[in-house]
Write a structure and sequence with these properties.
Blueprint (H helix, E strand, L loop, with lengths): L12 H7 L1 H5 L4 H14 L5 H12 L4 H13 L4
Helix pairs in contact: 1-5, 3-4, 3-5
């Protein structure tokens, strides 16, 4: 049996971002995008505290909307960054 993709598994960052994609896609500035993504992750029940902290650290390093969108897209697919 094939493994489920991360975006289908509750408790993962990929799942949280995928379930709320319309919310964070509405952001138009770096600060809005960071805040929306942080809000989503903080209210979600992420199983791994380490993954959550790593995500927040990577998110805070984003300098442009395109860079942040790329990071979020990568996390949504469940690929490592």
């Amino acid at each position: 049996m094939a493994k489920k993709p991360l975006y289908e598994i509750p408790g993962t960052i990929a799942y949280a971002l995928t379930q709320n994609v319309n919310e964070w896609k509405q952001a138009t500035t770096v600060s809005e995008l960071k805040q929306k993504a942080l809000d989503i992750i903080n209210r979600s029940e992420i199983k791994s505290e380490k993954d959550k902290n790593d995500f927040i650290s990577i998110l805070n390093q984003g300098k442009s909307v395109s860079n942040l969108m790329s990071t979020l897209g990568t996390y949504m697919t469940g690929m490592k960054v």
